[in-house]
Structures
1.
Amino acid sequence: MIAILLLAAGASRRMGDRDKLLEEIDGLPLLRRQAARAVSAGCGPVLVTLPEDSPRADSLRGLDVTQVPVPEAAEGMGASIRSGVAALPKGVTGVMILPADMPDITTADLTRMAEAFATAPGPRPILRGASAGLPGHPVLFPDDLFAELRALQGDTGAREILKGNTVRLTLVALPGRHALTDLDTPEAWAEWRGSAMDPGNAGSDQ
């Protein structure tokens, strides 16, 4: 059983007075859209980290996800991963971690990652989504690394864990720029919305 952990506890500071995760695509807040795709992948439980008392929680209403408040959200991504992994249910053999601000990630991408993990020969690898040969997200960690994930500090995410386990790392090719596109600024949103690089992706769950 593989859990999907959506990181949604960041402050969205580069968006000015807008919250990037509540920006709408096809009538849905980005966070709800990506959480619904994670649920549709059917890999296992879906967890979403959130700042405490955040209006983002309302966008998840009715979805089969576990909301994980992050009291130390201001610390950075380490706190978000730490809290999310600590909340994983028993029986999970891997966790697929991805920032929630990546609108090109589809249900099919998540399923591809899960299938690659389930069918990998030998010891379970670390899998990382890649596009155009460049590593990005999601990253799927096996359960023997959960203790290290629960001990993360700071705002560099799981970078040091990846550096220490390069021999276990396998890239999984995702189409277009799916593994790379994240939207942190109003300019990035405007460019993405006006782009024809990946026609139809914004409205597709696949």
Note: The helical segments are 30-41, 77-86, 107-118, 146-150, 159-163, 186-194.
2.
Amino acid sequence: MPNPGGNHGAPRVLRSTGLSVAFDGIRALQGIDLELRHGEILGLIGPNGAGKSTMTNALTGFAQFSGQLEVDGHDVTGWSSHRLARFGVRRSFRAVRLFQGMSVRENVEVAALGCGMAPAAASRAAADALEAFGLLDHADSPAGAMPYGHERRLGIARAVVAQPRYLLLDEPAAGLNEEESDLLLSQLRVVPQHFDCGVLLIEHDMRLVMGLCHRIHVIDHGRTLVVGTPRRSSLRPGRH
């Protein structure tokens, strides 16, 4: 699936420079420089309270920040969540809020229509997203009757259907058992190539992180601790 065009010759990257967030004078993030490259899966990890959710909110327009945010050569600092989503920076949420009265297919089609797709294109894109996450056989089932593991994957399908440049996944494996987590791992592994995007994975399941991520960005107390590959000893499971 093609992405919207960017600056010709500009590097395809979502980049924050000196990103800081404060709440009532308390600095939740302190000068974070993060780089999510097109075609990669970057893990964002750290202990509870490290600032991961705040970082996700800032990168997707749900939190105000100081510093700079750039997407494929465009300065998008200060853009609203809606504008960033239309530009191709999309996210899933930890709490999946489905349209309970709609079918699985309709839940995904609505997301595509909301991003400006024509009905025929939205239908095709929805079918592709559902197939990628093993939900096409359930397309006509009521969304409200889906098992929990299917709900998690449906939430991701809704996020990818709009052809994102960058997809931010907030704890997609939360509450999944080991079998469901393994299935999700295999499906997420092909997302950058299939949907032509970069993926930021915020996750506590270190088995998933180590099995998926090309690079890992570790934060704590709102600061970057280390950025590296999963093979580095400091990034082994159990350390964060």
Note: The two ends are 35 Å apart (CA to CA).
